[in-house]
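Board notes (copied after class):
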Amino acid sequence: MKKIDYNKHIWEGWLVQDFINELDELVTIALAGKSHFKTIQTKKDLKEFCMSNQPYYKKYIPEVVEHFAQKYNLK
């Protein structure tokens, strides 16, 4: 299991934890397949979902993806 720095600054005062907080509910819904979002089945799906749904910053944040991959056991 990789160590995640939740206090790492990403963009204009936003930390890793801030992006996780914003995406948490959306990721849960997308994993369940109960929304208009494409159902997340793999870590690659998760990466694409996070990048397109995180607020303001649309680049890959490895710590955010890793957090959810660990939480939901995605490979």
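Comment from the instructor: The chain has a mean pLDDT of 94. The chain is about 50% helix and 5% strand.
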